[in-house]
Design goal:
Pfam families: MoCoBD_2. GO terms for molecular function: iron ion binding; oxidoreductase activity. With 134 residues, the protein is an alpha+beta fold. Helix content is 15%, strand content 20%. Strands 1-2-3 form a three-stranded mixed β-sheet, covered by helices on one side. The model has no long low-confidence stretch (mean pLDDT 84).
């Protein structure tokens, strides 16, 4: 039995127009971060986020998604590090990614959650293009 998959692609030059992602979410955020200038260690003391989603079907779920996204973004920006096999990392085979999961790099934990974490949804402003898609 032949298990080979054959796929043919054709380029037509045709472009599509319109608004494929016609929803918008507006918001603002502020974080106060304490940094130890000797060690580089840091802790986010406060984080304040407000978003205009329009009418929320379930505000508790939306707030939970926003909190999770903040902590995930904190990990991406401040903790996770890609280590590839190169001249600086000779113990990794060339071109191979060593840090491919949470077993090989630090991800945020409960200790990384800000001391004061405030997330709110703007109320009374119907954002007609802001659907609860978070």
């Amino acid at each position: 039995m032949d298990s080979t998959l054959h796929l043919t692609l054709a380029l037509t030059g045709q472009t599509c127009k319109g608004n494929p992602f016609n929803y918008y979410t507006y918001g603002a955020a502020f974080a106060e971060v304490e940094i130890d200038t000797l060690t580089g260690d840091f802790h986010t003391r406060t984080a304040n986020i407000i978003l205009d989603l329009g009418y929320s079907i379930n505000p508790a779920i939306d707030v939970g998604q926003i909190e999770g996204a903040f902590i995930q973004g904190l990990g991406w920006v401040a903790m996770e590090e890609l280590k590839w096999g190169d001249a600086a990392h000779k113990w990794i085979p060339p071109g191979c990614l060593y840090t491919s999961g949470p077993g090989s790099y630090k991800i945020p934990s409960m200790n990384d959650v800000p001391f004061k974490f405030s997330v709110s949804l703007l109320k009374g402003h119907p954002n007609v293009k802001g659907y609860p898609l978070i």
